[in-house]
Description:
- The protein has helices at 33-45, 94-103, 119-124, 188-205, 222-227, 233-237, 243-249, 278-296; strands spanning 7-11, 23-30, 50-53, 59-61, 66-73, 78-80, 85-89, 106-107, 128-129, 132-133, 138-145, 148-152, 175-182, 184-185, 219-220, 240-241, 256-257, 260-262, 270-272, 305-307.
- By secondary structure, it is an alpha+beta fold.
- The protein folds into 3 domains: 3-73, Uridine Diphospho-n-acetylenolpyruvylglucosamine Reductase, domain 2, CATH 3.30.43.10; 78-189, Uridine Diphospho-n-acetylenolpyruvylglucosamine Reductase, domain 3 (2-Layer Sandwich); 208-307, Uridine Diphospho-n-acetylenolpyruvylglucosamine Reductase, domain 1 (Alpha-Beta Complex).
- The protein has a 5-stranded antiparallel β-sheet with strand order 6-7-13-11-12.
- Strand 9 (128-129) and strand 10 (132-133) form a beta hairpin.
- The mean pLDDT is 94.
Amino acid sequence: xxxxxxxxxxxxxxxxxxxxxxxxxxxxxxxxxxxxxxxxxxxxxxxxxxxxxxxxxxxxxxxxxxxxxxxxxxxxxxxxxxxxxxxxxxxxxxxxxxxxxxxxxxxxxxxxxxxxxxxxxxxxxxxxxxxxxxxxxxxxxxxxxxxxxxxxxxxxxxxxxxxxxxxxxxxxxxxxxxxxxxxxxxxxxxxxxxxxxxxxxxxxxxxxxxxxxxxxxxxxxxxxxxxxxxxxxxxxxxxxxxxxxxxxxxxxxxxxxxxxxxxxxxxxxxxxxxxxxxxxxxxxxxxxxxxxxxxxxxxxxxxxxxxxxxxxxxxxxx
Length: 318
């Protein structure tokens, strides 16, 4: 790794969609897969924790900064084989992948329309919507782990609902480099029609203010989904209780702590409406969790990842 290209104490708030957080101890930008491999292998060889980010959605860095190396992944190679196999750099945009696949009559990723972020980020959180998720289409992935870059089976990721091995409290110091996916042919009209419908639904729900996307995971619960009032038949059938539904039921739409606000259009969005600090944003998240726990006796879990040093975090009283 060429340390001359590495910056120190760089603010990463502008690299996040929530526009909050402190400095990266070390900071670099990877524009090619070779860049990313050199950075990852160099960090691992020197015992430096590496945090890759793409478009900066689904993350909230601490105001006290992120120790180790933060690398912005701008890798963008994307190839299609005639059998529906796709090889993509982890930095390719998730929606770009959908569009490129749709142009070739390959379906399955329609749910990706409107989901911000890169393929790498989508895999870390096993992104999905409308009862589909990215891990369904993954056939193998290339990772840098323990200083070595190699292809591994999807089982290495230990996928579950909006979760993977790379989201654990002490995640493996691994970096996704490239992925291989397989999609099946589908009538282009159906691909675009479904994509437009999902886009319409997202636009109606998602606020224009700075956010990280959906902040909490939905609750999967047989008992709660059958007993709570106001759910659709589809939600009850799939045992899904939307986190936004629970937060709204607590009367928290529009609730604020400092510059952070729970969305008035959709309660599963925590917004930065007035220069909120990361501490204010997490404090609002904490308050929503406490209110839902008190009212429904269920603990909602963040989909957003808290990056960096949160050891001094104390929630601001609501």
